[in-house]
Design a protein that fits this description.
heterodimer, A: about 150 residues, mainly alpha, 5 helices, 3 strands, about 60% helix, B: about 90 residues, alpha+beta, three-stranded antiparallel β-sheet, globular
């Protein structure tokens, strides 16, 4: 897989194998593979109990919807690609926040699940190591988005 | 307690400023946190970076203090950007 900024101000991701394709499709899967969803995990951190009633009623549904829309958008873009023709993924400036958010959800969920800390990947079990590599890949994409599309 | 006293106490309680606190986490990138502070609060890059460093080094930072309603709005926005955010009554 190759990912790089283009001269016309987009990020281009070339999926060179089925494995690359699987990694991209793992974004949503990773983001959702935690028992407690992200909105609730953030709500658990809110502070005073007295604040939680309004938060549950008014904020939580908006957060859940926003997070779901990010993942749905990414799935839709990936689902529309012709994988056999090795069609690249292009991310434009207007969509950068959506992609960043989806990738962040995936990384937050992986961290929640595996607590990587500063563990050496060479000592990890195979499943844990592949999750760590996905997290690193997502982070690399996020840095590209941040540096070339999100920050003016 | 008279109705007037009760109303005054309630108004005083509502006037207490609230802190919006962002907590450190091992996932959110430092540049991203700075970017969020600029976007949400309109802070300068320098101020936003200082607050981000405080989050990173001290584990948390009070990023805004003021009226409860506005604090709730900022908290929601920061949570929307997936930052661990809490609210607390300001002691000042």
């Amino acid at each position: 897989m190759k990912a790089a900024p283009t001269l016309d101000g987009r990020i281009r991701i070339d999926l060179e194998s089925k494995l690359d394709w699987m990694v991209m499709q793992s974004i949503s899967h990773d983001a959702l593979a935690v028992g407690v969803d992200l909105a609730d995990r953030l709500g658990n951190f809110l502070g005073e109990e007295a604040l939680k009633g309004d938060w549950e009623d008014f904020v939580r549904p908006d957060l859940k919807q926003g997070f779901s829309e990010q993942l749905e958008y990414i799935e839709k873009v990936l689902g529309a690609l012709n994988v056999d023709a090795r069609e690249p993924v292009f991310i434009v400036k207007e969509d950068a926040e959506i992609w960043y958010g989806g990738l962040n959800q995936a990384r937050l969920a992986l961290e929640e699940r595996y607590h990587f800390d500063s563990e050496n990947p060479e000592t990890m079990s195979p499943g844990r190591r592949t999750a760590w590599f996905r997290s690193q890949f997502y982070q690399m994409l996020q840095s590209l988005l941040l540096d070339f599309l999100m920050r003016d | 307690m008279s109705e007037t006293q009760s109303a005054t106490l309630e108004a005083t309680s509502l006037d207490v400023p609230w802190n919006v606190v962002v907590h450190d986490d091992p996932v959110n990138l430092m540049n991203y946190v700075t970017w969020v502070f600029v976007k949400v609060f309109g802070y300068s890059e320098i101020r936003a970076t200082k607050l981000m460093m405080e989050v990173h080094q001290a584990g948390k930072s009070i990023v805004w203090t003021g009226a409860k309603e506005r604090a709730e709005l900022y908290t929601q926005q920061l949570q929307g950007f997936q930052l661990k955010t809490s609210m607390e009554r300001s002691s000042e």
